[in-house]
Write a structure and sequence with these properties.
It is a single chain. By secondary structure, the chain is an all-alpha fold. It contains 17 helices and no strands. The protein is globular, with a radius of gyration of 21 Å. The N and C termini lie far apart (52 Å). 55% of the residues are buried.
Length: 449
């Protein structure tokens, strides 16, 4: 412990850029590059894109600032943060929910992330086995799952400055570079224009209540809000940092990457006369059929899956960090021990998800929401229901329990003339965010039927 009662294994970001890249990396993941294009494709393209951007601004940004403020004020993980602000209350249960959600999302997310590494090699060598036969091969998918888990551990093991921040500064520029190269390749294909007009010319007659809900849900999951990852990352921020501009940069970066992923995928899909509404299989099933038809196809394909692997890694890092920070802060564990134990628990929890993709057929055919597989159910429960529940509770806590009057002082430290923005955030967090997220939650439960 240090003189101010902080645990010496905690750490702090060395620069604002380091924080923005790490937090944007946390937010940028399979949600942007795997989930965003297929949800956009299923919901009619450009009109969905506009609704998504509005949702990021109205819902994502206030929640992002709220989480960062709670984190920096308390200098603690999600559990410790709620306890520090409202001592002895039941609110720290929200922190425990966040830690649990982070570990459970990490458990199946790492399974999917492992596939991306396999696909880099598979695409390079021109192997054309189907996604189903790839995931149902235990000798392929389980070692890849383990490999990705260990990669994540090695980064978080290094701590905040030398691990997470250092790797974010390397991985994020590589991610951006690969995206730009792939966009240039995709938009110069013959017939790419139709994909661009699908993506950028809105047809609002296609917008339904379902489109709006999909946009709300996507805005929310892609920013990694609701599980305390941003509370944890905010707790490593210096008091001099401007929380509002930090939150804006993270949201902007995250949204930009999602939009760029669409620019890679839709022109290529339309150029090859494929259906943009393919659903979750878009990236692993449809794109591998497109790559071989492109000049330099295998290299382009391998670059795409490398991009996906980097995006996944920057997210698994933050998922692992939430529970690690809890054990370092609250239980005074050494970071090394905390990282390995959380990763081991998460790996154990992830085994049924890995096995449910064709290795053990019974786990792939369950009477549960989320498409019937154990992995699909975990994604439905934790990435949808638990994140939404966490976000509602965080916005209520910030707006009604801690209240803007108390929080304003923390926000003003790095942004003295924040002014009217505080009133806008206050209204959003007290009324608009909880109401909108509640609608998403109700819809999730109605749509099970």
């Amino acid at each position: 412990m240090t003189s101010d009662g902080m645990h010496s294994d905690r750490g702090e970001w060395s620069s604002k850029l380091g924080f923005i890249l790490a937090a944007a990396g946390s937010a940028i993941g399979l949600g942007n590059i795997w989930r965003f294009p297929y949800v956009t494709g299923q919901n009619g393209g450009a009109a969905f894109l506009i609704l998504y951007l509005v949702c990021v601004l109205l819902l994502g940004l206030p929640l992002m600032v709220a989480e960062l403020t709670i984190g920096r004020f308390s200098r603690r993980n999600p559990v410790g943060a709620f306890e520090a602000i409202k001592q002895g209350s039941w609110w720290k249960i929200v922190g425990y929910l966040g830690v649990l959600t982070g570990v459970c999302i990490l458990s199946y997310y790492t399974v999917m992330a492992g596939y991306t590494i396999g696909y880099i090699v598979k695409t390079l060598v021109g192997n054309d086995t189907t996604f189903e036969s790839f995931t149902s091969n235990a000798w392929l998918s389980l070692p890849l799952f383990l490999l990705f888990s260990v990669l994540t551990v090695l980064v978080v093991h290094g701590g905040v400055k030398n691990g997470i921040e250092r790797w974010a500064k390397i991985l994020m520029p590589v991610l951006l570079f690969l995206l730009v190269v792939l966009i240039i390749r995709s938009v110069t294909l013959e017939g790419a224009g139709r994909g661009l007009s699908f993506y950028f010319k809105p047809d609002f007659s296609k917008v339904t209540g379902k489109t709006l809900l999909a946009a709300l849900g996507q805005a929310f999951f892609s920013l990694s809000l609701g599980m305390g990852a941003m509370i944890t990352y905010g707790s490593y921020l210096s008091k001099k940092d401007n929380l509002v501009t930090s939150g804006c940069f993270v949201a902007l970066f995250d949204t930009m990457i999602a939009v760029m992923a669409g620019l890679v995928i839709f022109p290529a899909l339309f150029a090859m006369n494929m259906n943009p509404a393919e659903g979750p299989g878009l990236v692993f099933q449809v794109l591998p059929r497109i790559f071989p038809q492109l000049p330099g196809g295998n290299i382009v394909g391998a670059a795409f899956f490398l991009l996906l692997a980097i995006a996944a890694l920057t997210s698994t890092i933050s998922l692992l960090e939430v529970a690690t920070a809890y054990l370092v802060d609250e239980k005074h564990w050494l970071r090394r021990k905390a990282v390995w134990i959380v990763a081991a628990v998460s790996f154990g929890l992830g085994l049924p998800s890995a096995l449910s993709q064709g290795i053990v057929p019974a786990l792939g055919d369950l009477p549960l929401p989320g498409g019937g597989s154990f992995l699909g159910f975990m994604d439905w429960l934790f990435a949808n229901v638990m994140l939404a529940a966490g976000a509602i509770l965080i916005s209520i806590f910030f707006g009604w329990v801690w209240k803007m009057k108390s929080a304003a002082e923390e926000i003003r430290q790095g942004y003295p003339n924040v002014g009217k923005l505080l009133t806008a955030f206050d209204i959003m967090l007290r009324f608009v965010c909880p109401a909108l997220i509640l609608v998403v939650l109700i819809y999730l439960f109605i749509s099970i039927g």
